[in-house]
Specification:
homotetramer; 303 residues; alpha+beta; Urate Oxidase; 2 domains; 8-stranded antiparallel beta sheet; 6 helices
């Protein structure tokens, strides 16, 4: 039976590197979880076990650690660190034609009591995904695990009803979600030489502020509408972003029926349910946004 | 600023439905985690909050539960259950043009002591993803969380060396991985009317046996080579499968250096490491496999 | 063979109740995960299946939800909510002689943009465990998942060396831990009638500030020493606390050896390791602290 | 303010060691997660940072790895491996007066296709906890993550009713739980010299078979009654066990109300709920069982 190798990529996932900057006073630190995926011509290792074109995943890990030192300034932000790594893998490894570096950055806040001490800010994870080669680079920033909730200003009614619809409409509900979002920087993609100078941290803070303000201030008729408003706010606040994509689980807070106990419950006591959950996903783009290419994924179901 | 709504989908994720068949003796059961994603024309809810075209995710959950009763025979296998659900959402909901139903099935084994009692088989999760509409259906079966290990018959040497390469070559190592794989049934996609009669359980068992036999029996020069051999074995064993995709974390087992304690360690004591890990991903296809279309993903980075 | 029923307890674990206070402007909310364990004379249900003395765990859940409404003021703090619940289960259920209510409280911070919107503060979980009956109440407050790190001011040397010791001493290392701590309030236990008026939130903030200040400001020769300093600081800051217990995993940050790449690494690049980890546990008590009784556990390995 | 150090212990948690026996044909392997906690006189490191009595947790890890080689036969079973380690820490380290070694053992099953290849059996985790010193040893075996379910032969009715009781009685329900159990071997504790010869694997299989047979075959009026029957069956099957303790979450399977869709649901379609869950804990002991001492915990809330 004739079979053939299809799409493939490989690399080292989840290298947990922490870089401390000790030449500042007080010290600074970045805390990363770095995953690298390499694509190119790797037929031989699949078909015959000839590894002569394979950069080992151990070397990929070593490179992440070494670059945290060698590329100290680039390593201060996940976008520039990812770009430095992705460029290296493609430019310096003969067999690699495309590299995709995905970074989770765990924020820390300085403790008041002492300059060199920190507490982990568990309220959100900052992310960056850089794809280089095959027409790139594409630089995508993101956020994960940002849990937000509003106690009012959320309605849901007037929906399509079929035989299986039993939900009661509401003009006042608790709305909560855990935001996962990714946004693509086109100004930078058009001008890759400029990337190192971009103020990535400031850009991230601007997006975070716009996103949470839109969530908080929007009078919601559906989580989809709120998502769109959040996307619109981000695109308005940060002109260099062409598109933002969201994955928003609807963290249901159900009003508990207290009537068996002779108690009214005017939206005061809720059950925070685990599963199932609504899952709302969508993209908001500038009208003139270019094709995203491989920005959000390398295609064909691969990440 | 002109912005536009991009790709979007929504639905209910992780409905945990268990169906007991009590008209058999002994009882049978299936245990599912069902996630449904619907796509279509949902501009209004995003832009104005007009939900008149929106089937509620609560109704999606209700449908999953109701179909477990109404479509009792289809519900016996995740592939046919997913197809019944996906068809319904597209065919019976005006605004829905595509549905994607992803199911995790948790296997149970009957306890010896009593006919109606079971223990969860935690050794693997069976999966199915059915996409209907936009040219489908596509039916994809899969496995997750299958952890396999071999204590020998695995080598790794002769790889490309760069400045950051420090790994020592080996002709005998422990190789372990946690298999996630998905395979696409083309015979069925070509003949969707026939699907209900397919013996999905038998097909799954055949794939599982072929996959583990290839892992066990293959003398490995790289995890990529083993992956390809596993894919080839599956395609040989089950002619109706056009393509199989793998995601294989290399669960590193490092030989512990016991020399400081005056002890030799000829591949006897290993540290099972957590992170980082190699991640090998690839596809094996028949030479004449058609384009997979939306089988493995709906495109543009969405799942 | 004569067997007998030993220690037993039962209840409902992890009731996820969210209480919104809508009569304030802006709204306030508390977010709890409540676990209740009841002990008493429950021999019959174990031995014969006679449940006539068993309060159902479903009713326990209902009580948690109902009390979130009925005992609205008590529900504002986990300590007073736990005490109200524990008292009820013992005083109002004939068969229950002791109740232990353990609460996780998830902090939220108000978003700037709108008064009724919040983001989850993922940086720590506040806990309370209240035991009532059998001589109680005992009220224990706590914290979990507080991850702290200092980039310097930590040494480790001069330790005992045996045949298996290979660790190199250091006078400057990164020290990080994830704090789990519990502290017992004796002033309140001595005067249970006063508990509702205690400013539990203020007490918690005082402990959190003292604990993090001690971690940050302490020049550490061992994690044990730092733990003791943290405990001492807490007891000094909050006179009503008789004892505090810690469980501190040493989240190892290993200096990466970059010398194969010709790079020095003067404590700049670290690998944040997952497993194994040191685990330091200990208690700091006032010299005149009474016996903790059932404050920290009901004894015999039960929680 | 006079404060004092209370109870304390420390050690290395979760050393993930895999031991391959290559002198057998086919190879055998054991897969352990080993946590060691040491107690003794460690005042100095807490109070002054003088570590001269402290065996480093790094050396503890090294010892686990070295013993997997040096004590190869003892390492074949978690009970004997734990005892060898605990004895060493107490007998060979001047400051250590008590050691507690807790081991998780992950079972593997041999793949049919090749003698040296295995698949992880995810259906249960075998455990052992050995405490040595202060009057020990105590040897406790256990199981975790064994998920069992029965589709019938389970009733629940006739319970106490209070104001918050709304549950409807049932004479036929699905009952499911995830078994965590620990049992104490007194014959061995009385004769520690004999322990190496005990057939721990056979003892474990006997307990597992007795426990699951009792779950399956018992007509249940409450989960408490089933738990007691399981304990009784274990004590009958294995005379050397003096006491067994269970922690059984009631994994609720709720009958879904399908009546809004015009469908009957005679115990066929269930929602497998996550939280909250009933939690049933209890001990079954021989009538002449001695005091368990530190077998199940070292007391005062420590594990």
């Amino acid at each position: 039976m004739p079979v053939q190798l299809g799409y493939n990529q490989y690399g080292k996932a989840e290298t947990r590197v922490v870089r401390v900057y000790r030449d500042t006073d007080p010290h600074e630190l970045v805390d990363y979880n770095v995953s690298c995926a390499l694509a190119g011509d790797f037929r031989d290792t699949h078909l015959t076990g000839d590894n002569s074109e394979v950069l080992t995943t151990d070397a990929v890990k070593n490179t992440v650690n070494a670059f945290a030192k060698e590329q100290g300034e680039a390593a201060r932000q996940p976008e520039s660190f990812g770009l430095a790594l992705a460029r290296h893998f493609v430019d310096d490894t003969p067999s690699v034609t495309r590299a995709r570096v995905s970074i989770e950055m765990y924020p820390w806040v300085r403790l008041a009591a002492h300059p060199h001490a920190f507490a982990r800010d568990g309220g959100h994870v900052r992310t960056a995904t850089v794809t280089y080669g095959d027409g790139g680079p594409w630089i995508v920033s993101g956020i994960d695990d940002l849990v937000v909730l509003k106690t009012t200003d959320s309605e849901f009614w007037g929906y399509y009803q079929d035989r299986y619809t039993t939900l009661q409409p509401t003009t006042d509900r608790v709305m909560a979600t855990k935001v996962r979002a990714q946004w693509w920087h086109t100004d930078l993609a058009a001008n890759p030489a400029a990337d190192m100078g971009a103020d990535w941290a400031k850009s991230y803070e601007t997006v975070l502020a716009a996103m949470t303000a839109a969530f908080a201030g929007h009078h919601s008729l559906s989580l989809q509408q709120t998502m769109h408003a959040m996307g619109e706010a981000v695109l308005e606040a940060q002109p260099g972003i062409a598109e933002i994509r969201f994955s928003l689980p609807n963290k249901h807070h159900f009003v508990v029926d207290l009537s068996p106990f002779g108690l009214a419950n005017p939206n005061e006591v809720f059950h925070a349910d685990d599963r199932p959950y609504g899952l709302i996903e969508g993209s908001v783009r500038r009208g003139d946004a270019p094709d995203p290419g491989l920005a959000f994924d390398p295609g064909q179901g691969w990440r």
